[in-house]
Amino acid sequence: MAKGYWIARVTVHDAERYKDYIATATPAYQEFGAIFLVRGGKNTPLEGEGRPRNVVIEFESYEKALACYNSPAYTAARRIRQECSDGELLVVEGA
User: Alpha-carbon distance 26 to 82, whole Å?
Assistant: First the structure.
C-alpha cells in the first residue's frame, strides 16, 4: 500500500494564534499516525515563490492522510490555521 503525504507551504501571520492550531491539530495527527518529516527549517526557494514554513507529514496510506484532513479533530484545527495563516496544502500518494 502506498503511503500518503501532506505537503504544506505556509505563511503565518499570527504566531500566537498558530500555537492554538498546533495544539488543536495534535490529537488528529496522533489518531492517524502522522510522522513529521519536515517541520519548518531553513529553505531556499529555487523556482517560484517560496513560503517561510514548509511541512511534510507522512501517513501509512493516502486514505489515512485524507481521513486525517477530513476528521472532526483536524476540521477544528483547520479553521484556526486558516484564520492566522495563508498557504497551500495538498495530499500526495507516495512510495
Answer: 16
